From TrEMBL:
One of its GO terms (molecular function) is ABC-type maltose transporter activity. GO terms for biological process: maltodextrin transmembrane transport. Residues 219-439 form the ABC transmembrane type-1 domain. This is Maltose/maltodextrin transport system permease protein. It is found in: Cell membrane. Belongs to the binding-protein-dependent transport system permease family. MalFG subfamily.
Length: 453
């Protein structure tokens, strides 16, 4: 008769092996104990040192910084008497520093918990090797194994920490600012403390106040601007590209070069030159009008004409980009399609609608969405041409041509209204992210469908 083999440790435990379970439980309570149990003494010592440092940080540094994050300080700076009876400036809590220290403490604590998890997983994995009767790798073998199997993760560790502290941390900090009263003149540290105010900043910004009136009007102009700027540049580029590609047009290379020059010149130089050209008093354009006996127009000082001027200048800068992209697409469209359409008696408009435009849209739909999102945050064109002016007393720290992004700039650098600026930044992100994600997923190029289906 065949003898039945003895059950392994894994089968005896009903799934989770005894060594693996024991090592994981030990490491769960004290980092490094599981490694010592698995006879990995150097690795266990390293984990144990991390454990000691982490505990000291958790019980000494973390509570103080978390308390500062919650309270944002208890004592503001002020004048008082020193031991000699002289009036001196006494330092106080800096609410913003306390918020930053609290966020750093939280992120560091989360990193410590993640290392703890890695410690438990490592102990469990090596315990399973012991249950299977396999040797547990020593420290040198573990290092070589990490180099072979986890080398990409090791390379990404430092950039990942950089992203965590220099990208995610500032974003979270900006979000938290929106829930405080951090603004001039009454809540600027170190003279004054900053307090948590919940959603009151958002309610003031969205409902029944001068902030709300300013926000909704600036938002309306921002959307109108983004739509008009995107449509004019996009279809203007298509129009110019199709004109250049027409049969019989000579010197195509020269025309491409001429139309790309506005894009090749640094944008801030072009915009500053345009600002001088459209100057209502001394600008050359109005000077020529006056030589012809016509009154010049208030290009940049009247709300309506300022917006018209901005759109026109943006077309001059933006059309070449669309033109270059569309020229490349037009050369890739099979000529057989146009020949077949001509045989069927299709008009020029029908060929454009049924052949040219579907190809162009398929290739440029994601770019069109990106241009719309970029125009919402088109800081350069607005600020370098008009700085958001002309001013109006109906708006709070905004002009009639301000976009949300230029208004946000004025709120922060010019007026120190940081909480409102942060709330505006959050709303801009929500709007752009929602619009972009929704429309990207609806494009045919995203779905990878054939253009002729």
């Amino acid at each position: 008769m065949k003898q039945r083999s003895a059950p392994s440790a894994g089968s005896a435990s009903g799934g989770t092996t005894s060594f693996a379970r024991t090592a994981a439980v030990l490491s769960l309570f004290v980092m490094g104990l599981g490694q010592w149990f698995n006879r990995q003494y150097v690795k266990g010592l390293l984990f144990f040192l991390v454990y000691i440092v982490g505990l000291l940080y958790t019980f000494v540094v973390l509570p103080r910084n978390i308390r500062g994050l919650i309270t944002l300080g208890d004592k503001a700076a002020g004048f008082g008497k020193n031991a000699q009876g002289l009036t001196v400036l006494l330092p106080g809590d800096h609410s913003i520093f306390l918020m930053i220290y609290g966020l750093i403490a939280l992120i560091t604590f989360l990193i410590f918990l993640f290392v703890w998890f890695l410690n438990v997983r490592d102990a469990h994995r090596n315990g399973k090797l012991r249950d299977a009767g396999k040797p547990v790798p020593n420290f040198g073998q573990s290092i070589r194994g990490m180099q072979e199997k986890s080398f990409p993760y090791l390379l990404l560790t430092l950039p990942g920490l950089g992203v965590l502290f220099f990208t995610i941390l500032p974003i979270v900090f900006m979000i938290l600012i929106a829930f405080t009263n951090y603004s001039a003149p009454n809540h600027i540290p170190q003279k004054n403390l900053v307090d948590w105010v919940g959603f009151s900043t958002f309610s003031n910004l969205l409902v029944y106040s001068q902030w709300a009136y300013t926000f909704w009007n600036v938002l309306a102009w921002t959307i109108i601007w983004a739509i008009v700027a995107t449509v004019t540049c996009y279809f203007g580029g298509i129009f110019v590209a199709m004109l250049i590609q027409q049969k019989g047009i000579r010197f195509k290379g020269m025309w491409r070069t001429i139309f790309i020059i506005p894009y090749a010149i640094p944008q801030f130089i072009s915009l500053l030159i345009m600002k001088n050209l459209f100057n209502s008093q001394l600008g050359p354009i109005n000077q020529y009008f006056r030589l012809l006996g016509l009154e010049g127009l208030p290009w940049l000082i009247h709300p309506f004409w300022a917006k018209v001027t901005i759109v026109a200048v943006n077309m001059w800068i933006g059309v070449p980009v669309s033109m270059v992209l569309v020229l490349g697409i037009l050369t890739a469209i099979p000529k057989d399609l146009y020949e077949a359409a001509e045989v069927d008696g299709a008009s020029a408009f029908q060929k454009f609608r049924n052949i040219t435009m579907p190809y162009v849209l398929f290739a440029t739909a994601p770019l069109l969405i990106m241009q719309f999102a970029g125009n919402i945050n088109n800081f350069n064109v607005i600020y370098l041409l008009t700085k958001g002016d002309p001013k109006t007393g109906e708006y709070a720290f905004a002009g009639t041509t301000d976009l949300l992004v230029t208004w946000l700039y004025k709120l922060t650098l010019d007026n120190q209204i940081y909480n409102v600026a942060s709330a505006v930044g959050i709303l801009i992100f929500i709007f752009i992210a929602s619009f972009s994600i929704l429309n990207f997923r609806r494009t045919r190029s995203f779905k990878e469908e054939d253009i002729l289906q």
